[in-house]
Amino acid sequence: MATEGWGCYVKDIDGNVLLDLSSGMFVLNYGYSHPRLIRAVEQQLRKLTHFAGTDFYYEAQVELAERLVDITPGKFPKHVYFGNSGAEAVEAAFKCVRWHTRRPHMISFTGSFHGRTFGAMSLSGAPTLRREHFAPLVPEVSLVQFPDPYRGPFKSSSECIEHIRNRLGKDIPEEKVAAVITEPIQGTAGYVIPPSDFYPMLKELCEEKGWIFIVDEIQTGLGRSGKMFAIEHWDVVPDIVCVAKALAGGIAPIGATIADAEVMDWEPGAHASTFGGNLVACVAAIEGLKILEEQNLVKRAEELGEMALKRLEEMKEDSRLIGDVRGKGLLLAVDLVKDKRTKDFAVKEREMLVRESLNRGLIVFRGGKSAIRIAPPLTIGRRELELGLDIFEEALKEVERKC
Ligand SMILES: Cc1ncc(COP(=O)(O)O)c(C=O)c1O
To answer: Which CATH number is 2-33+296-402 given?
Structure first.
């Protein structure tokens, strides 16, 4: 049970101090209790906390919207919708594309996680959601296989695109498709990174068919991958970008859906949320984006990520459990296997490694069936990250000794 936090550290109810390499589940990109975020929020609390953002403007909402328009890929007019979470950002994208196209159908990917509300869950392929227990889901969603370079089944991006094309006119009603949604790098699945030519090919397919291209950057966005948005690694411009999690640095809930203005063309009242883009969250988000820029945190994520990836690759060489190491920026994953040749998921060993790390004062998160995600605050010191990786290696050796 957590009671206090600062920088990369969190204290539990027994007074133990833990080094958090998960950023409080990928939210605290600026670390715990950043003094600048606290100051911004304190000042706002004394001025105004709520009026009626759905029907009137707040200056902070406008400023944040302008900043988001600026930093998201694509130099064209955009509209921004504010909600309170990642799932709400995805719901807004889902409703927006149905409104704009008047078409019902969506294409999403196996292994994807877009949130736990009905629309977002119906768009998700992640088995952890236990979709079958909540049936019936929102209809008109087709899940297609995500290209996973480590576990397959596709050997190339073209095979994946062919797989989509082959389903058109069969179980995917081509002319009824409104949009394709994807996490550029699948988060909950354990940072699965598709091949470098995948998104250009997928975007081309979307353009050919007149489908809207939505990226869910809720876990990957805002500098974490060493680019402002992970989709920039593929040099592809999406029509809609969803952000949440780290946007207000964990100070207050917020989500945003940033869309090409031609696509987000709904009438006032078509969609809204009482607390969406609340003032406290907006000022924290604005201050956070200033920190990101002034402290060059995107570049920093890239550089520290390279160092960490190299270190994890060295660990892989000496380890019989690590089957794959992957990452971009400070978005890193270690995939554990029972056998490097068969790649069988080392489920029990992964649980042991999370536990051994925790026993040594280190927080890392699960991802997929047998991976571990490492995603520290972008403000982490080089030495702190090295220390975290030392502890991780020690825990790994202990698990290998016990198995
Ligand atoms: C990629 C992605 N999309 C959507 C969500 C849902 O966000 P929230 O929990 O804020 O609704 C998450 C949360 O983990 C996520 O990782």
So the answer is: 3.90.1150.10
